[in-house]
Specification:
binds zinc ion; 267 residues; 30% strand
Length: 267
């Protein structure tokens, strides 16, 4: 995907297998066999997005890292491929000058630090929603991988960008706050002229939520707020020149909402 002079390159770090129960106890595969395609489960990516402007190399989300987490029928996360994908795109870890984490769930910050809590991207600023810092990093009762928490607690302060309001990262790359899935969840707008791409993290987990507005995510910290923000974002995606993609959209395909009597997703 190209927006003006800015290149957006999706990279899958691994696989996110979601059973219907991931989207809520009331959800079944019935009528959605096109999503739950194999063993009654959806096989979705753990997505990251490499954004290259004329002057900056920005990574949006840092995957799961070489780790896995098995929550049984509802969710299985297996990461590990981000660095392969970066290499295939011709980008070394030292060239990344900013990592924007849409939020601090394990499958979005996993490559920030290695198992010894050393920085994987040694020259990168790390952008995080400040309420996520408080919710995850500062509260020992909220689960994170230990090496990620330690890495964040010890990160060089000059590299850390904690933000609470909409912010510009680089010309054509802006952050908007989209809380609900997590308290400090953020999304990124890449734009040039009238053309925009919204990189949504988990603010919309899957386009199926357009047709099924009661489908949530078991990860939603505030499900009601998450649902309201999701609807706001779907409305943004009704714009003619606006496309969106989430970290777990099937095949990391960009799409938009066709407005009208029967709104529908076109990817
Ligand atoms: Zn996620």
């Amino acid at each position: 995907m190209r927006i003006g002079e800015i290149d957006i390159h999706p990279i899958a770090d691994g696989t996110f297998r979601a059973g219907p129960g991931y989207f809520g106890d009331h959800v079944t595969a019935h009528g959605h066999e096109d999503l739950f395609t194999r063993y009654g489960k959806a096989w979705l990516p753990i997505g990251c997005f490499l954004v290259r402007t004329g002057s900056r190399v920005i990574l949006i989300d840092a995957g799961m890292g070489p780790e896995m987490r098995d929550d049984g029928d509802r969710r299985l996360l297996v990461g590990g491929q981000l660095l392969v994908g970066l290499r295939a795109a011709g980008v070394g870890v030292e060239e990344i000058d900013a990592v924007i984490c849409t939020h601090l769930h394990a499958d979005h910050c996993g490559w920030l630090f290695d198992a010894t809590a050393a920085a994987v991207f040694p020259n990168a600023e790390i952008w995080i929603g400040a309420p996520d810092w408080q919710h995850f990093v500062q509260d020992p009762n909220v689960w994170m991988f230990d090496h990620i928490r330690h890495g964040l607690q010890n990160v060089d302060g000059s590299r850390l960008r904690l933000i609470a309001d909409d912010t510009t990262v680089a010309p054509g790359v802006d952050i908007i706050m989209t809380p609900g899935h997590t308290p400090g969840h953020l999304s990124v707008i890449v734009s040039s002229g009238a053309h925009r791409v919204l990189i949504l993290g988990d603010a919309i987990v899957c386009p199926v939520q357009l047709d099924e507005p009661t489908w949530r995510s078991i990860g939603d910290v505030d499900p009601d707020l998450a649902a309201r923000v999701r609807e706001r974002l779907f409305r943004e995606l009704e714009g003619d020149n606006t496309y969106g993609v989430g970290a777990h959209f099937p095949e990391l395909r960009f799409g938009r909402v066709l407005a009208g009597q029967m709104r529908r997703w076109i990817g």
